[in-house]
């Protein structure tokens, strides 16, 4: 594109928009048709891309087909292919055709619904969608807008955690009579809780020494126990500290453990702590009735979060955060500069209007509700339950295969679609941790046939297989099991020697 073209730049010309959008869709169509031909994990060298791209941005624009060719040649080979059907690492990061359609509508309309007046339909759709999700997962009425609570779509659990910590902090500081009391506030979580809680506590000013990591054990299936929390809280209270915030998890990252919400909720109520329930991944499974008992006691919580972008076919970024008291959130996060008061909202009080800028950290925000709404409309609850159950059945099959092979140990019973396992030692005195590290390295170095990750619990190095990819079918899980067996033999674990 030369200078004359630059002078006549029409960034949203409808004809160009149609042609270039079709080119991108065609490119992605080819990518997904051929995704199984790519190694799940790239064999990438650090700094490779910098050697392939120019040192500076171009002075003149280039045709979209030239740009897409560079994506194909230079970008795609260096990607971890999270949507590969043989991606079993971390937790899945779902995408779907409905998710893409919603994302395209969100990006294409490109509104900024930070306040009701800034985009009324976007704000109201978000309130509708989070209530739909709350009902689907079986949350108590107090988390619905109709029940006095409400929800918001954050970008991630990390953002949801920071927002709830701020709300809990400010509520406590009012009671303590000033901000100097922050040095007395204490946050509690288990050794299985996500690290984002420690990060969030630091961000909101809780001293690192006031973050309590409470140990769990195999006796409680690595769930947090009320007795262990009570002991920690009693010791802090005796030292003049103030219990602030307790994290409970439904489906921990490492092992899929489920904390007992009712017992923890009773402890939180006794000490006037904020109780947050983190169901980032496993929350999607709660749409199935057989898992809703995991939320027993949720009526005692102050906030709950789950990520549809993990296991609910909704593209990144989409995290549902529900609070029982929206006022606690908005009083800590609201701001009303004069330049935002230039749109008439004289009927705001009568409308019970929601301004989502006061429910999050940032002012600006994308139209996230559109993509979740399209997923719910396009697939419906029945198909989504079948989708979740299919992954759980695949994980159950993998677990049964492990149990039938004497070389392997299932470290904890499977929870949801996560299987945690490791090789047993062959002989007394064997370095079983090194053996399992070699096994995982062998699996992930197998020309990209699959990708798994690990966790450490009770000083044991374990391997995690998380089933949940949008394109994953039983054949891919079976192929994963064949690969695990093959690599186990390579590292010296031979059947019949145990």
Count every beta strand, where a strand is a DSSP E run of 2 or more residues. Answer: 11
Largest sheet: number of strands, sense, barrel closure: 7 strands, mixed
Number of domains in the coordinates? 3
Number of helices: 16
Contiguous uncertain segments of 5+ residues: none
CATH topology label of the largest domain: Aspartate Aminotransferase, domain 2
Keywords: Decarboxylase, Lyase, Pyridoxal phosphate
GO molecular function: carboxy-lyase activity; pyridoxal phosphate binding
Family: Belongs to the group II decarboxylase family.
Modified residues (N6-(pyridoxal phosphate)lysine): 310
Describe the structure in your own words.
Belongs to the group II decarboxylase family. One of its GO terms (molecular function) is pyridoxal phosphate binding. Keywords: Decarboxylase, Lyase, Pyridoxal phosphate. InterPro entries: Aromatic_deC, PyrdxlP-dep_de-COase, PyrdxlP-dep_Trfase, PyrdxlP-dep_Trfase_major, PyrdxlP-dep_Trfase_small. The chain is an alpha/beta fold. The protein folds into three domains: 66 residues, dopa decarboxylase, N-terminal domain (Up-down Bundle); 256 residues, Type I PLP-dependent aspartate aminotransferase-like (Major domain) (Aspartate Aminotransferase, domain 2, 3-Layer(aba) Sandwich), CATH 3.40.640; 111 residues, Aspartate Aminotransferase, domain 1 (Alpha-Beta Complex). Helix content is 42%, strand content 13%. The protein contains 16 helices and eleven strands. Strands 1-7-6-5-4-2-3 form a seven-stranded mixed β-sheet, sandwiched between helices. Strand 2, helix 8 and strand 3 form a beta-alpha-beta unit. The longest helix has 37 residues. The radius of gyration is 25 Å and the shape is globular. The protein starts with a helix and ends in an 8-residue tail after the last helix.
């Amino acid at each position: 594109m030369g200078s004359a073209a630059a002078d006549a730049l029409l960034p949203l010309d409808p004809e160009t928009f149609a042609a270039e959008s079709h080119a991108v869709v065609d490119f992605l169509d080819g990518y997904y048709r051929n995704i199984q031909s790519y190694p799940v994990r790239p064999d990438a060298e650090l700094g490779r891309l910098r050697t392939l791209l120019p040192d500076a941005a171009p002075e003149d624009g280039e045709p979209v087909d030239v740009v897409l060719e560079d994506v194909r040649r230079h970008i795609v080979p260096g990607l971890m292919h999270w949507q590969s059907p043989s991606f079993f690492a971390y937790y899945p990061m779902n995408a779907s055709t409905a998710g893409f359609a919603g994302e395209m509508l969100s990006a294409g309309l490109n509104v900024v619904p930070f306040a009701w007046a800034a985009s009324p339909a976007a704000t109201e759709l978000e309130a509708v969608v989070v209530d739909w999700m709350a009902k689907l997962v079986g949350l108590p009425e107090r988390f619905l807008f109709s029940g006095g609570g409400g929800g918001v779509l954050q970008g991630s659990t990390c953002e949801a955690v920071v927002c709830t910590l701020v709300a809990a902090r400010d509520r406590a500081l009012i009671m303590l009579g000033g901000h100097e009391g922050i040095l007395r506030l204490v946050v509690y979580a288990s050794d299985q809780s996500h690290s984002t809680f420690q990060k969030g506590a630091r961000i909101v000013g809780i001293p690192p020494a006031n973050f309590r990591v409470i140990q769990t054990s195999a006796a409680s299936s690595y769930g947090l126990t009320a007795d262990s929390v009570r002991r920690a809280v009693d010791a802090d209270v005796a030292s003049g500290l103030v219990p602030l915030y307790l994290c409970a998890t439904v489906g921990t990252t490492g092992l899929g453990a489920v904390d007992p919400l009712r017992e923890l909720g009773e402890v939180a109520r006794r000490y006037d702590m904020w109780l947050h329930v983190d169901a980032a991944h496993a929350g999607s499974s709660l749409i199935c009735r057989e898992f809703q008992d995991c939320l027993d006691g949720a009526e005692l919580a102050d906030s709950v979060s789950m990520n549809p972008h993990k296991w609910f076919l909704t593209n990144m970024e989409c995290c549902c955060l529900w609070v029982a008291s929206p006022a606690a959130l908005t009083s800590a996060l609201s701001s009303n500069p004069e330049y935002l008061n230039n749109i008439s909202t004289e009927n705001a009080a009568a409308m019970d209007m929601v301004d989502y800028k006061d429910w999050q950290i940032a002012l600006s925000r994308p139209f996230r509700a559109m993509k979740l709404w399209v997923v719910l409309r396009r697939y419906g609850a029945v198909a989504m339950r079948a989708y979740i159950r299919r992954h759980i059945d695949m994980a159950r099959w993998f677990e049964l295969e492990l149990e039938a092979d004497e070389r392997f140990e299932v470290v904890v019973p499977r929870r949801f679609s996560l299987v945690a396992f490791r090789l047993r030692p062959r002989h007394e005195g064997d370095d079983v941790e090194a053996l399992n590290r070699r096994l995982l390295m062998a699996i992930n170095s197998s020309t990209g046939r699959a990708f798994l990750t690990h966790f450490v619990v009770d000083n044991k190095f374990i391997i995690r297989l998380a089933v949940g990819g949008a394109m994953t079918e039983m054949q891919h899980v079976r192929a994963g099991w064949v690969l695990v067996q093959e690599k186990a033999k390579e590292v010296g674990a031979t059947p019949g020697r145990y």
